[in-house]
């Protein structure tokens, strides 16, 4: 059975979701980040996996539920941190971020099954990716991929196929980066903590 990895920042005001602060205060943006992380970790807990690991930039808080192993992120650029996170798994692993609170066990479970696949790729609609699964993690599959640019997803997927891997795709999701993203995700997943908080904050800021 595979390892499920979540790479995330601790929800500290001024350090997370700063692009949301065109509409929300830094504290409100951090609250939305916490809600997104809590929704993500709840989905992770409900998904069968060998290990469930939160690879965290910052200090853990009460928002980490029982059953989630927490390890610190290494220093370096995002491609370096992703490669290091995969190394923690010591075997097949699916890695996701904290920006898709709409994620469900049904979306995650296929990416943990490497029968007939060497890699899983979950595209994000901004050109990046929300999930990456590797049957045999290798730093060379990640290091040097330009992160947080419109072509990140295309370059990462090409890196996998150029290595001769059989790649299967997960559904495309929207990452929460901007206020417009937050609105879309909250509308698409109205039963999440993220949507409930977003609705309450929007009522206050109107």
Fold topology:
Layout: E1 3-9, H1 26-45, E2 51-57, E3 69-72, H2 78-89, E4 93-96, H3 105-108, E5 119-123, E6 129-134, H4 152-162, E7 167-169, H5 179-188, H6 193-205
Parallel strand pairs: 1-2, 1-4, 2-3, 5-7
Antiparallel strand pairs: 4-6, 5-6
Helix pairs in contact: 1-6, 5-6
Overview of the molecule:
By secondary structure, the protein is an alpha/beta fold. Helix content is 34%, strand content 17%. The chain has helices spanning 26-45, 78-89, 105-108, 152-162, 179-188, 193-205; strands spanning 3-9, 51-57, 69-72, 93-96, 119-123, 129-134, 167-169. Strands 3-2-1-4-6-5-7 form a seven-stranded mixed sheet, with helices on both faces. Strand 1, helix 1 and strand 2 form a beta-alpha-beta unit. Helix 1 (26-45) packs antiparallel against helix 6 and helix 5 (179-188) crosses helix 6.
Radius of gyration: 16 Å
Q: Structural class of the helices, strands and pairings?
A: alpha/beta
Helix and strand run? EHEEHEHEEHEHH
How large a portion of the residues is in β-strands, by DSSP E?
15-25%
What share of the residues lie within helices? 25-40%
Shape summary: globular
Tell me the major beta sheet: 7 strands, mixed
Low-confidence stretches: none
Distance between the termini: 47 Å
Count of helical regions: 6
What is the tally of beta strands? 7
Trace the largest sheet across and list its strands.
3-2-1-4-6-5-7
